[in-house]
Amino acid sequence: MLKKDVINCIAEKMPYFLKGDIAQAVDILIDGMVEALTEGRRVEIRGFGSLSIRERQGKSVPNPKTGVIMHIPARKSLHFTMSKSLKEPLIKIDS
Question: Which of 6, 9, 80, 82 lies in disulfide reach of 86, CB 3.0 to 4.6 Å?
């Protein structure tokens, strides 16, 4: 689902709002989430899941093709943990 799909979905359920206003609200939401994550805070959306930043340590590994040792620097990565209410319907799909 793309951002425009989210905006269209909201617009269908709330036709009394302009799409431009909905798009602006979605942008404000995303900007707030990005700001919180860059400050090291966790973002939690009840019924959906939580986002947090995790530190990955640097490591040295051999290049599989040449065998030369390469150093991979430490970095940050985004971690998503889905909520129980999201996980349950997904498990039913797999069964």
Answer: 82
Does the pTM exceed 0.70? yes
Instruction: Pick the closest to residue 77 from 49, 52, 46 (CA basis).
Output: 52
Question: CA–CA separation, 28 vs 45, rounded Å?
Answer: 15
CATH match for 42-95 among 3.20.20.140, 4.10.520.10, 3.40.50.2000, 3.40.718.10: 4.10.520.10
